[in-house]
Design brief:
- The relative contact order is 0.15.
- The protein is built from two helices and 19 strands.
- The radius of gyration is 24 Å and the shape is globular.
- The strands form four sheets. A five-stranded mixed sheet has the order 1-9-3-6-5. A five-stranded antiparallel sheet has the order 10-11-12-17-16, with no helix packed on it. A five-stranded antiparallel sheet has the order 14-19-18-13-15.
- The chain has helices at 2-19, 219-222; strands at 21-24, 32-35, 43-46, 51-56, 61-66, 69-74, 81-87, 91-96, 106-110, 148-149, 162-172, 175-184, 196-205, 215-217, 225-232, 235-240, 250-258, 268-273, 281-286.
- The protein is mainly beta.
Length: 287
């Protein structure tokens, strides 16, 4: 009788582990993957390369990332939303289902490392095989070199308005990802929406922009700019972690824009958001 009871306890304890899922998937920009979550439990997505940034549509899910791992934890019941993960070679799309039973949740989703193509080695006169020819580069690593932080030392927080702080840029082919933070210092709810991005061509300024590459200009500095032409850029995608901000709240967003052709390339971009109670909300970026 004791032996039967012990076996039954082991069987009962093992059932939830069989139901919880650990999946292996292949990355795809064209597929939306459903993820089942549970309160007080983490779901881990482990992709095959470093994560550049993530964005989700609701603050009801706590989403963090480190290296190639993304951690998802629902904080409220009855809420579902979507999630985007950007890596150097792909964008992954998910639908986060509302928190349910632990036995039916997705514990982990693993992705294999992308297989880099064979490196091309160019041997010319004076080069040495095995000597580290700089012409031979890994296509997996090279796009990562485009990622760069945005300097914003001159941007000071406002006392009663909405502030935008540009954080990171990632450029791949003719696409630019801009990650930013919006902070609502006003006394009213603010709904930022997906911003417009304007390329400023033929920029003149009373203050030199030499050495200000990858910088966000302050409002006073931006007002000293004059552009011969302003050209709206196509918005390919955009997401905010929170769709609206109560007074004192902040959120993270990402906007994906198509860069202009080389002949029309601009050195300054203006990112325009919805107006707050005081007037326009914008950030000016020197590329």
């Amino acid at each position: 009788m004791q032996r039967f009871t012990s076996g039954l306890i082991v069987l009962i304890l093992a059932v939830p582990l069989w139901a919880q899922k650990i999946d292996t998937a292949m990355p795809s920009r064209d597929r939306v993957v459903p993820i089942h979550t549970a309160l007080d439990h983490l779901t881990v997505i482990e992709v095959g390369e470093p994560v550049i940034t993530v964005a989700t549509g609701s603050a009801a899910f706590k989403v963090e990332w480190r290296d190639n791992k993304v951690f998802i934890e629902p904080t409220e019941p009855g809420v579902s939303t979507n999630l985007f993960i950007w890596t150097a070679s792909s964008r992954l799309n998910y639908e986060l289902e509302s928190a349910g039973e632990v036995g039916k949740m997705d514990f982990a989703i693993d992705y294999p490392k992308p297989t880099p193509p064979a490196a091309k080695v160019t041997i010319s006169s004076g080069s040495h095989v095995g000597g580290g020819d700089p012409a031979a580069k890994s296509s997996e690593i090279e796009p990562m070199l485009g990622g760069r932080p945005v300097r914003s030392e001159s941007v000071k927080p406002s006392e009663r308005g909405v502030d935008v702080f540009l954080k990171d840029l990632f450029e791949q082919n003719d696409t630019l990802f801009i990650r930013y933070v919006i902070r609502n210092n006003s006394n009213a709810v603010y709904i930022p929406g997906i911003p417009r991005v304007i390329a400023l061509n033929g920029v003149h300024s009373s203050q030199t922009l030499v050495g200000r590459e990858n910088s966000q200009l302050s409002e006073a500095e931006a007002q000293k700019l004059w552009a011969q032409k302003q050209m709206p850029l196509a918005i390919l995608d955009g997401k905010l972690r929170s769709a609206q901000l109560a007074p004192g709240e902040e959120t993270v967003g990402v906007v994906e824009v198509k860069l202009p052709s080389p002949s029309q390339k601009a050195s300054v971009l203006r990112i325009d958001f919805s107006q707050d109670g005081r007037g326009p909300v914008a950030a000016t970026l020197v590329l």
